Amino acid sequence: PHPSPLSAHRGFFGCNHFVLANQWLEQRGETPIDWMPVLPAESE
């Protein structure tokens, strides 16, 4: 399961993990990650 149960008391949401990861990448000249999931299209 995610997030880890070990982080339950420290919290996960609102800690800006994804923002910090992208800032780290950008500081190194790398392309930031688009963290939005790609959802399958609904079939009709």
From TrEMBL:
<dbReference type="InterPro" id="IPR036895">
    <property type="entry name" value="Uracil-DNA_glycosylase-like_sf"/>
</dbReference>
<dbReference type="GO" id="GO:0004844">
    <property type="term" value="F:uracil DNA N-glycosylase activity"/>
</dbReference>
<keyword id="KW-0326">Glycosidase</keyword>
<protein>
    <submittedName>
        <fullName>Uracil-DNA glycosylase</fullName>
        <ecNumber>3.2.2.-</ecNumber>
    </submittedName>
</protein>
<dbReference type="InterPro" id="IPR002043">
    <property type="entry name" value="UDG_fam1"/>
</dbReference>
<keyword id="KW-0378">Hydrolase</keyword>
<dbReference type="GO" id="GO:0097510">
    <property type="term" value="P:base-excision repair, AP site formation via deaminated base removal"/>
</dbReference>
